[in-house]
Amino acid sequence: MGSICGDSQPHHVVLFPFMSKGHTIPLLHLARLLLHRSLTVTIFTTPANRPFIFESLNDTTVTILDLPFSHNVPDIPVGIENTDKLPSMSMLPSFANAAKLMQPDFERALQTLPSVSFMVSDGFLWWTLESASKFNIPRFVYYGMSYYSSCVCRAVAIDRLLFGPESDDELISVPRNDFELPFTEPEPKGLQIEFIMEVVIATAKSHGIIFNSFYELEPLFADYWNSECTPKAWPAGPLCLAEPPKGSTEPHNKPKWVQWLDKKHDQGSSVLYVAFGSQAEISPAQLKNIATGLEESKVNFLWVIRKSESEISDGFEERVKDRGIVVREWVDQREILMHESVQGFLSHCGWNSVLESICAGVPIIAWPMMAEQPLNARMVVEEIKVGLRVETCGGTVRGFVKWEGLEKMVKELMEGEKGKEVTKKSKELAEMAKKAMDITD
Ligand code: UDP
After folding, report:
1. What is the pTM of this model?
2. Where does the secretion signal sit in this chain (predicted)?
3. Residue 246 CA to ligand 1 centre (angstroms)
4. Does the beta carbon of 17 lie inside 6 Å of ligand 1?
5. Residue among 332, 269, 321, 267 nearest 294 (CA)
6. Does the ipTM exceed 0.90?
7. pLDDT single digits (tens) 3-18
8. DSSP structural state of residue 278
């Protein structure tokens, strides 16, 4: 970045994360890295997202500016408490369009700020390119995906959108089952395609891309991106290693689930962590099958579910109470994954979850649910070999998972030979991740 930061003033960077946890959290880690290098950081967000950002960075000098958000967002159902937090991926295009209404306020705020050296904005906030250009600020795009899935999306999706299905499979061979357009709701398709194209075009015209990844994890794809795609991209991660989890060391100050993990560790037991990120919606029938699969597997588990998914099945928690705990709160996932007792992760393969698991040396049972998660799952299982794939009904990527299949994979990961192989590989990659971030034990 030397060419754009040529003077001796402390450089001022504007960060603008998208309003969902999976997109915000890595940029907060990036903020720490920038502050650590003595840059000044201003973060833009919305009122509903401000408290989370404030709590995460309240020990730093970062400035947080919140812009008003439209409260008449089409497709966001009445009753959603804060319209300025993306409640579910199915609402993404209309939510992202509503975010564009912040542009005039964003530009008014930029006018009042001390000189900005560069901006890092989430790719979904495509319109920040126009704002950045007006103020002559180089715009970097934060891409919340791996190089792998970005290359596949670029090679397959964009070509398919522009040139039709016959353009598939030219450069990177991915079975059709593992590739879907990131937004799978049938309607309104026009809105989705328009949105994707806005994002892609604004990204292509930006100064560069910041990937939350590290070169050694996916060298072929990092090289592919920089030889075949524009703009140039840099791996800045794994950003989850930018700071250790805040977790307390005082036993009585620890959340109850960490105390539970401590107890399991003292007993010499290993634990499967089960969580599907902040956006996935799981049906009651699917929840019941997960519960039965976990119960029949006889492994210890810590299962984080969303508050709205509180019904599991009658008597389940009581029956498994000696070896399983269900948590209905926001947890510090990194703290859980780094806990010594956690030896496996049943995950939806959101990119942050994958990276956090890799950095903790914890192997994954890959159960992709939406967006580019099928590609992440494929990368986890077939490319970097740190996980096993859950079996879905009918072999479709996002299909229903029956408890019998789940039980089998859970046992295989926690006790089987394949589990041992992927655990070994996970631990090797965890060491490489630390080296990439200059962290040594
Ligand atoms: N997360 C967390 N606590 C929770 C739920 C999620 O810390 O209770 C974090 C998780 O560690 C990750 C992010 O939220 O950093 C979720 O991002 P991911 O890409 O895995 O999935 P998404 O939520 O975007 O589907």
Report:
1. 0.91
2. none
3. 16
4. no
5. 321
6. yes
7. 344 556 789 999 999 9
8. T
